[in-house]
Amino acid sequence: MTRSTTDEAAAPPLPSPKERRRLREAKSLSEEQVAAAVGVTRATVRSWETGRTSPRGRKRTLYAKLIAPDPEPAPAPVPAPDPALAPPASAAEPAPAPPASGAEPAPAPPPSAAEPEPVQKPEPNPAPPPAPIPEPESEPAEPGLSPAEAFDALYAHAAPGLVRQTYLLTGRRGLARESVERAFQLAWHRWPEVAVDRDPVGWVRAAAYEYAMSPWHRLRRTHRHPDAPPTEPARRALFEALLELPPAYRRTLLLYDGVGLDLPETAAETEASTPAAAGRLEVARAAVAERFPELAAASSPAEQSELLHDRLGALARAEHVPVPSPARTVRTGSENKARLWTRAAIAFAALLIGATALTLHTAPTHYEPPVPPAERVGGVPPRGGPQKLTPQDLKLQKALREELTHGPERLVPRIP
């Protein structure tokens, strides 16, 4: 155990899953090449880049060296100028003119009179990528906030926009609100992990999208059919075109053209390769362009993306979606669920221990051979008995039972 702990402490640190994918693609390495170099399968490399698992031991060291960024070349040392090669005084900067005779040199300005150097203010944390719904601007979380206050700030900043995004993804208002609240409950349950993530909003968004796109919601009566589409014709056509797309294509289109992620980030969040994400995006745009001539008439993909961004934002802002619950309610619900699951696990463990103890108490302590099956024994005569009484025998038996026997009749019965 000590050796394992020491090895893990000495292992090289790894960047975040999204950064791992970016570094691999920056070196023009495919998943197959990385898998062959480390000695794993392609699925394992994809699992490392999505954050499901992390490499360990020798594989972790090889993987870290493989995706490590190339060191920047050190600047070449500047040689000292040779006096023989120094430019003449005419070519160099003009030397300050000597003061005139009898004139005193001008005194240097005091330090207080000099212009103060501009104080470099620390740049705030990068804002989340643009969403189709303009989210309220909020200041980055100041250091010293408690976990609950930091969670509440993140919830107030991202929850309304995520509800509208999830509504575009599912077409169901109630499911959109439920998905976002469920994702934030999971984020509060794993707050130590979410708090240090490079993109907490992206973490919650991925969790909300995964819950909203679960196929099990079709079995629920309230979420079996989408809500009524918008009444305005253009928005109604866009709404129906989105819902006709397969879920994976719809999610790719919303992340790239709606939220504003780049192609590698979109591929990483949808757990697909970059070429696959590009193919899904192209097919989704072509399907939507069939209902929008202006989208088909766009001169470039960038113009199509900008046009879709505006249309998706207008559609999401125009629809009335339910307001998410307060942050305190979400945190309390997450804590109650965690407490309930903990108690259920304890009860199940106690039940399992009790059943095991009862089995050990009632189980036999020695070996009992099983009873062999019955076999037919030969040479034994069949079991016999008295013959069946005839009517005459029955009549005699009845007469003997009805009449009292006395005198010589006891010795010689009278037979009729």
TrEMBL record:
Its ancestry begins with: Bacteria, Bacillati, Actinomycetota, Actinomycetes, Kitasatosporales
Entry-linked PROSITE patterns? HTH_CROC1
Where in the numbering of this chain does the HTH cro/C1-type domain appear? 21-55
Q: Where is this region: Disordered?
A: 1-146, 364-391
Q: Does the keyword Secreted apply?
A: no
Which InterPro entries does the UniProt record give?
A: Cro/C1-type_HTH, Lambda_DNA-bd_dom_sf, RNA_pol_sigma-70-like, RNA_pol_sigma_r2, RNA_pol_sigma_r3/r4-like, WH-like_DNA-bd_sf
* Organism listed in the record: Kitasatospora albolonga
Q: Which residues form a coiled coil?
A: none
Q: Can you tell me which family this protein belongs to?
A: Belongs to the sigma-70 factor family. ECF subfamily.
Q: Which GO terms describe its molecular function?
A: DNA binding; sigma factor activity
State one Pfam family annotation. Answer: HTH_3
What name goes with this protein? Answer: DNA-directed RNA polymerase sigma-70 factor
Gene3D superfamilies cross-referenced by the UniProt entry: 1.10.1740.10, lambda repressor-like DNA-binding domains, Winged helix-like DNA-binding domain superfamily/Winged helix DNA-binding domain
The GO cellular component terms are: DNA-directed RNA polymerase complex
Composition skew (Low complexity), residue ranges: 34-46, 87-105
Biased composition annotated in UniProt, kind: Pro residues: 70-86, 106-135
Key words of the record: DNA-binding, DNA-directed RNA polymerase, Sigma factor, Transcription, Transcription regulation
Top-level taxonomic group: Bacteria
